[in-house]
User: What shape does this take?
Amino acid sequence: MIALTIGTILAVAALAFVLYPMFFAAPDSIDEQIESAVRAYREQPQDQKHDRCAACGTPVGARDARYCSNCGKRLPA
Assistant: This one.
């Protein structure tokens, strides 16, 4: 009986430890920092974006891609 009580208390304490940041997060939380980093990445100049690979015509989705994911040829800078 004592082991069951101690186990239950430890489980509830672990659950509270994990859920605490979700309910009582600081105003400058990690999520806001991540969102600002994503916004800064998306606002980079569009001259680095490639639409299609010149060799095979595969659409290139990554803005910072250096090589084509299909044929492996180097994309123009």
In short: The two ends are 69 Å apart (CA to CA). The chain has a mean pLDDT of 84.
